Fold:
Amino acid sequence: MGAPDNLFTKLIAEYDESLSRNGISGRRIAERLSALSEIGKTEEGGVTRPGFSAEEKQAKETVQGWMKAAGLDVRSDGAGNVIGRLNGSEENKTIMSGSHVDSVPNGGNFDGPLGVIAALEVVEAWKETGYQPRQPFEVVIFSDEEGTRFGAGLTGSHAMAGHLTADETDLLKDKDGKSFETVIEEYGSSMQGVWDAKRDLKDVELFVELHIEQGKLLEKNGVSVGVVRGIAGPVWMTVAFEGEAGHAGNTPMDDRKDSLVAASHFVHAISSLPRQFSETAVATVGKLNVYPNGINVIPQKVELTVDIRDIHEEKRNALVDAIIESAKEAASTHNVHADYQQTLAVEPLLIQEKLVEDMKESITKFGFEPMELMSGAGHDSMVIGREIPAAMLFVQSKKGISHNPEEWTDLKDCVLGIHVLKDFIESQM
Structure:
């Protein structure tokens, strides 16, 4: 395949080749992770592949080539989702597996791509061992999972599930001011194509996603894989404070309408709110823009984002209400105006008990004590899981680092996770 030396060499350096068995190849997995790491590569060794960008499309096209070589029938829908299908020996409902290949700015090389490569590796293993699944199997790449482009993620899975609405998409603009419709057209599709991406998921029996943990629990417990019990549902908001610009030297402190002071008040308040509602709730201000952003100008406007998550929907929603009230209080206290807008709201997902137990059984076969985990991050699984049963498998993340070039999962853990994924999928057929 001619994979680049850097990531491939690091992955393969201490790999135990005895783990490559039953058709699963650690070397092929490392080559493919490395090949994708070169698309949108940053100086720090991470990747920048925003949703609906040329880089995301290139990564999809690269995987499509692998899919076709593995014997899959490949198609793309109007939302940019890629589906590679392997027919089963019988006409039954489909089992689907996959993830995404887009990234946050300067993100890591495992978040998303590993799940796509894992699902495809199951097909490769079947091909090498002559196994034909009883049911059809599909490998899927969802578009724009991270939400970097518009501040509202999980776009591809929302489109497939029929959850996108014109009211929502009409509000979306990227950092260059381009509308969602303009970006989709530049990508090579249309809004009608996005609506047509809605799929009748009644023909799909199960969706299963392998993903890096993005936490430290597996590493702390010395295990490679764990089963996800539930996924926290994110709410994303944009909040804007608007006051008055003024000269930093000539405007008295008691006669200011400083939007940045109000925003600072708000950000500080958010840091203590989640624990008042739930032990598992979190809230983060991750993006902040100041206007006019001059060293000697009192800030007229501040725009920021808030990411709110919990596995308990009622408690999360109560936290959202409290954050809105906190924004109003900060604005009133500092004599500025506050506006807010919700750009994403996804219900938490609890995995069906039978699927959790079946995944535990597969994990046990490979010598691990089954460990249950909760996902604080949102995933395409939680969107598709609103319509059909969904399951999720985590593999170990070193130091819990993610959304960062230092994100790392040992090849051993990747391969063991794919062995478990393959066994679980076969157990469902």
Remarks:
- The CA atoms of residues 240 and 339 lie 5 Å apart.
- The chain has a mean pLDDT of 95.
